[in-house]
Prior knowledge:
Elements: E1 2-3, E2 9-10, H1 21-41, H2 48-74, H3 80-83, E3 98-101, E4 106-109, E5 113-115, E6 120-122, E7 127-129, E8 134-136, H4 141-170, H5 172-179, H6 191-225, H7 229-252, H8 256-262, H9 266-286, H10 294-297, H11 317-337, H12 340-344
Antiparallel strand pairs: 1-2, 3-4, 5-6, 7-8
Helix pairs in contact: 1-6, 2-4, 4-6
Amino acid sequence: MAKTDDGEFQRVNGFERPFDTLQLLSWIMFSFMVFSFFLVVMPLEEDKSRLIAITIVYALLLLAVVLLAARTSALNPVDRTIDEKLQATPRDVPTGDLLYCSYCKCKVHKRSKHCRLCNKCIRNFDHHCKWLNNCVGSVNYPPFFMLICITFLFTLLHSVWSFVIWKRLWDERSSKAYFYESLQYFRGSSHTGLLVLVFISFVAAAIACILLLQLVLFHIYLQYTGMSTYDYILSRRDKKTRQKNLREAKNKIVPVSEKSNQIPKIQEVEETSWDLAEMQAAENQAKGYELPTERNRGSGLEGEGNRRQSLPAKLSPTVASEEETARDEEESQAASNLPKEKKLGKLRPLPVKLAN
């Protein structure tokens, strides 16, 4: 266990305490899968040649998983400027590629990130793997990627063959004849117990296989796009922030359709003006006055009971001038529509007096 100049804890690799809960869980699950496969699944195989072939392949994959996991956890992915305790700028690194870390109190590479769990800056930081209890950077990323690929093949073989054996156990005809009469190893064991044990081994391997497949495809995508896991998380966070800001901006903007509904149309303006005129007429009528209209201008009503006595209207100068202007326009228009003869009248010859 290493300590900084301030006396704080700094993790060197994944085998240092405190161990992570997921790291301990991975050790337990991996041990259960290995023991269940060698002690339960493989002894139930009837074909000896197939048993030997599957055992060899499974053992090689198991060895590769253990070695790669140990190497990935044991490597220290710290930025070498911290590892070498260089407070000054290294000679072989351009000055523009360095940034100052306030936690480590030294200059580090611009692609480095300080991990709070390990309390150190990681060169080309990808992510902190809790299953390995170590950070993944440029130093241990290649063995990490090989580890997840080999572990996927390992769990795939385990889940497939466990399902095959479980299917045989489910078949009552072959199970009673073979497992209770031929194998001395399982004599005295219950048929239901074997079914449950093999099924649990299959489910554990299948879940791990699906998760590892997703992880392998994800890192293939990251390598294709040239991003790290940390860059991907930041891009997703920025995308969600932009979408949130865009939704808030859209909620503040009034649509054009609503704005157009707020603008009064010409027809609405005309109707409003006529409504004002009717209101003025109703107000004058309430005061005892009546404006001359087409309805009461003529004497179309008969009888004294049906005829209303209209008082002289009190018109404002504005209303009177508007009515006079309208009347003059009507008379001028009517005069312009008359024939020319009616306008001038018939020309009569003037009497001519002849001189005597």
